[in-house]
Every structure is written in C-alpha cells, then in structure tokens.
Amino acid sequence: MSRDLKDAFGGRAPLGKHPAAATIEDVITFQLHILVAIGERAGQHWSERMFDLSLNEWRLLALVKARGPCRASDLADLLLMDKSQTSRVIKSLQKKDLIQNMADPTDGRAVVLKISQKGNALYKDVFAEVMNSNERILAALSVEEVEAFEKTLKKLIGHSQDLLEVRLGRKIVR
Fold first, then answer.
1. Is residue 137 part of a domain?
2. Which pLDDT belongs to residue 108?
3. pLDDT by residue (tens digit) across 88-107?
4. What Å distances lie between residue 74 and 66, 69, 112, 113, 136, CA to CA?
C-alpha cells in the first residue's frame, strides 16, 4: 500500500471488511462495475436512439443544468473525465446548440458554460426517461432498501473521492 494511502487511513492498513472473495466476481467493486456497465449499455442505446445524445453528452448537459454556469475544468472533475475528452463533449453539445459559452461573472478572463433553451427542453425529456429507467432498476428493492443503498453509496462515493484527492495530491470539485 502506498504511503499516501496509509496516511489516509491514519497510518495503518484498512481493516478487513470485505466479504470473502474467491474470484474477481466476488469483489464488491467488480460487482458495482457490472451494475454500472449494464446501465451504461442500456442507457447508451436509448440516449442515442431517442435523443441523439451519447451518455457523456447527456451527463455533461445535466451537470451544466444542475451546476451552471460552470467551468469546463469543474465538469471534468465531476465526471472524472480528462480535459481533452471533456472538451470534445462540450464542442459536440455546442454544435447541437445545447450549451453556450458566457463570460465568467467572477473572472472576466474566464469562460463558463450554461444550458441553452434548446438544451433545457431536451434536458426535461431525457431526465424523465432517466428517472423511468432508474425506477425499473430499483423495482427489485423495497423503499427501505433503496434508502439504505443510497445512503451507503453516498458514503462510499465521498470516501472514494477523499482517496482520489490523496492520490492526485489536489482537491477535486464535488
């Protein structure tokens, strides 16, 4: 274990909390990967077919809606994308007239992104489909299980972001 990660755990290795794992398929992070991959495959299909958007375009558009106006570098952090990939997605959304540049109100030299009227209208339609899709996935769980899962997921994401900041040696936008 690297020195930085040991420091993140108070100078000691993390406690052994993971359930017994005989193969990669038993590893919790692999199981999460499979869940995400299934959602990605299905989401990519309907987002392109129904809305002419890739999943990365949808996610960036949704974050501009939620956080806008915002800087491209902040979006890259939030989406865990490299800056060149983020730039390509931004250019694609601008070409489709879904987001626009504007001067940063706090720094006239910088540019921030905001959602356009066309982007706002599309966002509403896509978000409705996203929520329908999530309801189908969550149908296997009780309301209590969904609440517990969301709470646990947020806790794991926050902790993983902390660990990522240690690895990167810098704060990330959350």
1. no
2. 80
3. 999 999 999 999 999 988 88
4. 12, 11, 10, 10, 31
